Amino acid sequence: MTEHLHYIGGEWVAGNGFTPNVNPSDLADTIGQYAKGSAAQVDQAVRAARAAMPAWQGFNVQARADALEKIGTEILARKDELGALLAREEGKTRIEAVGEVSRAGNIFKFFAGECLRTGGELLPSVRSNVGVEITREPVGVVGIISPWNFPIAIPAWKIAPALAYGNCVVIKPADIVPGSAWALAEIISRAGLPAGAFNLVMGSGRDVGQALIDHPGIDAVSFTGSQTVGRQVAAACVARGAKVQLEMGGKNPQVVLDDADLGMAVELCAQSAFFSTGQRCTASSRLIVTQGIHDRFVAALAERMGKLKVGHAMAAGTDIGPVVSLAQLEQDLRYVDIGRGEGARLVAGGERLVRETEGHFLAPALFTETLPAMQINREEIFGPVASVIRARDYDEALALANDTPFGLSAGIATTSLKHATHFKRHAQAGMVMVNLPTAGVDYHVPFGGRKGSSYGPREQGRYAVEFYTTVKTAYTLA
Asked: Is 237 a residue of the active site?
């Protein structure tokens, strides 16, 4: 069994034992053994990162761009291999996994270009013969805590801008899917960065994550995960004055109006709610359907769900892979029971499935006749479980869409330009989709939400500069 070590200060470093990385499609398949980290190794990594700051910030922008370009090029060249690894450890279908790897490669290439585009301003002062120069500088050492649902794309969209703008990095990937992050670290280790500019420490949130957010040598923390943990991260960072960026999920609405194209609405809802096993923070778990199309929509979606093939993530023809872990599967099943107990009607799925290999397989679940106040409509389930809420008309549908403590993504299916335009303006979400699935955001545009979904500057695209740099204003007497 292959053993995978931490990467600290330019060297591969042993941890305190190993954790097995098990394939959720086949529990007999162990992908590898991955090192467990400790607070002491976090400290070692942070010290290495701080020591590397002068060298990395001293790289000229072309050399920095060349390093990121090299990383992106190798990721894309190995997309099939890395996609297979991702599918094995996380449970995405192979097609989805290869797509995620491609996104990671393109992210590094995009930020290679951003190395050369970081600008500033020259302004006149209100005082005579005084000039004002406004520049951006690296924040310093960035701690990254990434989730399990996008095990290479989310590390990429945090690491790439951090490095592009001259920061040094310590990353802790999710402990149940360390393989893709380790593979990415191995690629970065050969890109020509100074020793310590990039560091990987694997392990649990309790041991490694907490040490990372508490460390006085970490200048900024970028976290993606649950709202509960995100609030703890924010409190710890604010207490010691560290910059913090949080992405904490959603309870995303997909509105379907009477005038929508039924076939298109059904397909985009099936993709939004159930593909990637519903394990996307942008997934639509609340389907808000106006009464004129409601019954036809429910019948058509249930029929479409019956054609979805749930199975091994690596198998040809699989539409939906397994749930990532037993703990997550048990949570999904608990919410199915909660929905039944609340009086919602389960019209499709919701049961554990048996396949040729032992894995965490779940039939996608659809509830109807649900009420907005039900627990299944308030809390993020993070699995292939969706609820239909009936609305009288567009106005009520919009109000229901906004009736959530989250605000990440929102969608509408309609042929009305009037309603589409109004929804884009008034949906309380950071991202709005018209006649498209709520899940699916390009790598070169900002990603993030409102309310309880996000805190701090946006991720991805040119907007990433807001988090990974700090602004300096300098005056010069002529």
From this structure: no
